[in-house]
Amino acid sequence: MPEPLPVPLAAAVRTVTGRLGLDAGQVRPLRVHDAVTLLFPTDQVVLRLIPATGDAAARAGRAVRLTAWLVEQDYPSVRPAVEAPIEADGYIATVWKEILAGPAGTPVEVNTALGRLLHELHALSAAPVDLPTADPLARLRAALRLDADRGEPALTTEETAFLHDRTGELDERYATMSFPLGSGLIHNDAHPGNLLCDPNSRHGYLLTDWEGACLGPREMDVVLVGAPGSRFGDPDHERLAFTTGYGYDIADWPDHQALRDIRDLHSLAAYIRLGTRKPAALTELHRRIASLRDNDRTIQWAAV
């Protein structure tokens, strides 16, 4: 049996299901992390909830409008089931059509599909959605401000100082980079965990989780899976499967490691936000920061 939802979240779910007439008795949690994803199998929709802030509402609204446009372009994306986000009891909710997924493929197959999906995304014309310009460490800076305002921060004083210094260094480095793939619409969080297996898609998968989509250098999408040196211990043949699917090897670009460092640092933001209420996230946060401070790439990171 799944664990019961936290009381504030359960209240938000009741409000949304009441407004939309969904069968709340059939709800099944799919993922409970920084964002919460719930399946309503009777209604064949998925509900995604994030804590309500002005930024969260803007991100959710852009995701719904952008994916509606992507579907019109015949791009393999998740489909919104409701045309605008719903604010309820401290959460922002978006509603998506359920995908009756088939079995997931091997990591090589998944990475190849991700490469193809991104290559196709990067070839699209400008979307008629007002998207922000990429600022790769903005969410980390926001998480540091949030932690500074807590009565009991997730970070130690030394960790906070290190992250502020490292953020400043990498912001300066990013400002000097030249990007051979050019700029345009990017997903901005493109990794295998954001693919849904769909046998009806021409690539076998759909791309989901569009809240961070923006305008920026295409290398931002390619570096997560396409660059060598993954801190998660991913083998190189899986990276090369992505490279084959996308049609470009980012390892040939001199700044690929610096951009990977930026993306690695960015990943800490979610763990800072979760750390005060999820012990496993706090443990992983401290491990990641220690490996960064010691420049120890032998320590493998793990997703919580």
Automatic annotation (TrEMBL):
Which SUPFAM superfamilies does the UniProt record give?
A: Protein kinase-like (PK-like) (SSF56112)
Please give the InterPro entries that the UniProt record associates with this protein.
Aminoglycoside_PTrfase, Kinase-like_dom_sf
Q: Identify the residues that the record assigns to the Aminoglycoside phosphotransferase domain, covering every copy.
A: 44-257
Specify one Pfam family. APH
The name this protein goes by in its record: Aminoglycoside phosphotransferase domain-containing protein
Species this protein is from? Mangrovihabitans endophyticus
